[in-house]
Write a structure and sequence with these properties.
Organism: Streptomyces microflavus
CATH superfamily of the domain at 86-173 and 211-315: MFS general substrate transporter like domains
Number of strands: 2
CATH topology of the domain at 86-173 and 211-315: Growth Hormone, Chain: A
Largest sheet: 2 strands, antiparallel
CATH class of the domain at 86-173 and 211-315: Mainly Alpha
Transmembrane segments: 67-85, 105-125, 137-156, 162-183, 195-213, 225-245, 274-293
Subcellular location: Cell membrane
GO cellular component, one term: plasma membrane
Structural class: mainly alpha
Family: Belongs to the major facilitator superfamily. Bcr/CmlA family.
Shape: globular
Strand order of the largest sheet: 1-2
Helix content: over 70%
Distance between the termini: 42 Å
Strand content: under 5%
Number of helices: 11
CATH architecture of the domain at 86-173 and 211-315: Up-down Bundle
């Protein structure tokens, strides 16, 4: 049977630490849904990566848990970054309208541009990661994301802000796509399903808490401070990926189908009426949600003039509902 994802992540892609002899005596392989570790005498001998001390056999369970936690934090952060980029900005929409002296409809295009960038970026980043591996496209996307977010913080006009929000979304799509691709590389079976459930939980919680975080940031600074915070988060995630997330797609598993093959696959999916029905229903539901989200800050301000914190709480409660 294939190795479970936990053991693959520990042995190959995420460095672990430990001291003492005995790490080379037998690999540790999780078995069952609970992830308990047992010694597999028939498995090949595995040594610690060069430059790292060997982990003691008695500390294998602790090392496996530490590795799983590290993978969860890295991939969870990548998954949460695009929702944070979208929704932390919501409480600041009226302030951006005043600061840039632009119509509310124009400022709402900054949300549309970011969302469109995320959608289009996934079409490009996915085939790139299949062709060149996960690490290089992810690092490139994170660097572009940091630069685009920093320029958003300095944008002097609504047009420039819209343009770099589009670029921010295009680059942020790398986190969405490659985080899920890494899970597929590292995990199999029940472990993969469990990890995808964790990422889905993070994807659901991040949009709920993001407006609350944005509202708190607005208490201490203006709308530009939100992009400064996002720039800092992007820098931290870039450094974490560079240091701890190694390449997970072996050269022999890569293929060069490109965007054309991806589009052909999507065409095949669209031919499935059941899939298309679910997709259209979900898309319309999200369209209604984002129409409300983009219009609610300005509409609430015109009708009742609430302060920023209640507006952020309203956005968060709407998302949770």
């Amino acid at each position: 049977m294939p190795d479970s994802g936990g053991s693959r992540a520990q042995r190959e892609h995420i460095p672990t630490s430990g001291t003492g002899p005995g790490a080379d005596s037998a690999p540790l392989t999780p078995h069952g849904d609970a992830g308990a570790l047992s010694v597999d005498p028939g498995a090949p001998q595995v040594t610690a990566p060069a430059g790292l001390p060997a982990a003691p056999e008695a500390g294998g369970l602790k090392a496996a848990r530490r590795t799983g936690f590290l993978v969860t934090m890295v991939l969870g952060g990548l998954t949460a970054l695009p929702p944070l980029s979208m929704d932390m900005y919501l409480p600041a929409l009226p302030a951006v309208t005043d600061s840039l002296s632009a119509p509310a409809a124009t400022i709402q295009l900054t949300l549309t541009a970011c969302l469109a960038g995320m959608a289009l970026g996934q079409l490009v980043v996915g085939p790139m990661s299949d062709r060149w591996g996960r690490r290089r496209p992810l690092l490139l996307g994170m660097v572009v994301y940091v630069i685009a977010t920093a320029i958003c913080a300095l944008a002097p006009s609504a047009e420039l802000l819209i343009g770099f929000r589009l670029l921010q979304g295009l680059a942020g799509a790398a986190g969405i796509v490659i985080a899920r691709a890494v899970v597929r590389d590292l995990y199999d079976g029940v472990e993969m399903a469990r990890f995808f459930s964790t990422l889905m939980l993070i994807s659901g919680v991040a949009p709920i808490i993001a407006p609350l975080i944005g509202g708190q940031v607005m208490r201490f600074t203006d709308w530009r401070g939100i992009f400064v915070v996002l720039t800092g988060v992007g820098i931290v995630l870039t450094l974490v990926v560079w240091k701890w997330l190694h390449e997970t797609l072996e050269p022999g598993s890569r293929h060069t189908g490109g965007v054309g093959e991806a589009l052909r696959t999507m065409r095949g999916l669209l031919a499935d009426r059941v899939f298309t029905g679910y997709m259209v229903t979900g898309g319309l539901a999200f369209a209604v949600l984002f129409a409300y989200i983009s219009a609610s800050p300005s509409s609430s301000r015109r009708s009742t003039g609430p302060p920023r914190r209640p507006s952020a709480c309203c956005s968060a409660s709407t998302r949770s509902a």
